[in-house]
Amino acid sequence: MHYGASSASHNNKPTMVANDTRYQESMGSQILSFIDKSMINDHYNCKAKCPKASSAKCQNGGFPHPRKCSECICPSGYGGALCDQRPTGCGQTLKAKESKQFLIDKLGFPSGVRDEFMFCNHWIEAPEGKKIEIKINSISHGYAHDGCILGGVEIKTSEDQTRTGYRFCSQNDRNTVLVSASNRVPIITFNRSGQQQIILEYKIV
């Protein structure tokens, strides 16, 4: 949890700048991060309720659920009992090729602001040993706010998948290029205002 990058600014310029500037729009998010959840469970010693030997063997950095040790609490973009599956619901698994392809994601309803976010979870995958290049082609107008508090896209290219991915929600983010550390990139779109469209290009590199 964090203030927005321009909180308390008198001229709309940033009052904080992320060490990795690709995280600039992530600051001020209203979405609880996986690391926040993990730290809270550490603080209250909840993880100790699940004996290591008999609890779920969580993948991708997840940890056993303190109230149901046979299932895991998963990082964003991961689901299933062991965090080894794409979350159920909206989204799809796409296979990258050496030629560019497009992910076109529409999320939300035409009007109104909602209390809760809607999410769509996509996986882009490549053969073992390959990496994936993601380029932001377009983002709907009207979502450029600190923390992407109305909608946007999270792109998880880091080797450490417990970390929140880079979040983008501004039209100024068009042509941003990211390269994955592995052969899988979870893409999470989120929205709680109107209907947004996000178009990403992807290919093997």
Automatic annotation (TrEMBL):
Residues 1-47 form the Peptidase M12A domain. GO terms for biological process: proteolysis. Pfam families: Astacin, CUB. Keywords: Disulfide bond, EGF-like domain, Hydrolase, Metal-binding, Metalloprotease, Protease, Zinc. PROSITE patterns: ASTACIN, CUB. The keyword Hydrolase applies. One of its GO terms (molecular function) is metal ion binding. The keyword Disulfide bond applies. InterPro entries: CUB_dom (IPR000859), MetalloPept_cat_dom_sf (IPR024079), Peptidase_M12A (IPR001506), Sperma_CUB_dom_sf (IPR035914). Residues 90-205 form the CUB domain. PANTHER family: DISCOIDIN, CUB, EGF, LAMININ , AND ZINC METALLOPROTEASE DOMAIN CONTAINING, ZINC METALLOPROTEINASE NAS-31. This is Peptidase M12A domain-containing protein. It comes from Teladorsagia circumcincta.
